[in-house]
Amino acid sequence: PVFVFSGMDNRLIQEQCIEQGADRFIGKPFDPELVLDTISQFLTSQREQSEPISEAPEIFQEPENTQKDASSISTVSGSILLAEDDELLADIIVHRLSREGLKVEHVRTGEAAISALQKNQYCLIILDVKMPIFDGFEVLHRVRNNPNFQNIPVIMLTAMGSEKDIVRGYDLG
Q: Other C-beta atoms within 10 Å of 34: how many?
């Protein structure tokens, strides 16, 4: 699933995003309630179509020839990873999703997002594009190119709305 949050909120851009495979389009500035409703509707439909979110599939497997203590990997089934450096926006998202009974882990950098993915299991990733160290595009690239993570749904959250940025996000998965 792909949700597009864009500052370019016009009908043509919306139609192009949907034609290219986006599931939802939300124009900025956006209402946090609308973001919550969109995510809640998605998660509700996922629960109805498959197993409960608290029973997310096992997506982390140790690479062959790697000796690692299994107790060092913490699995947090059904959690959402939020990578957002804007504290106010992150607080709003975490608060609203937590109020719905969802577990949200918030990190502030792309590097921290990659680190969290290596330690925990998530059912959804929400990425800001402009973050310190690794931007959201780099994190998305790494997620989509790692067989352990590539099936996790990703929502890109950004004020960037140029066609080039939108296409880049779609191209990265």
A: 13
Give dist(CA 140, CA 123) in Å, integer: 15
CA distance from start to end of the chain: 10
Give pLDDT tens digits along the chain (173 positions): 677 777 776 788 788 887 877 777 777 777 777 777 777 777 777 656 554 444 433 433 333 433 333 333 233 347 899 999 888 888 988 998 888 888 999 999 999 999 999 999 899 999 888 888 888 888 888 998 999 888 888 888 876 656 676 666 777 76
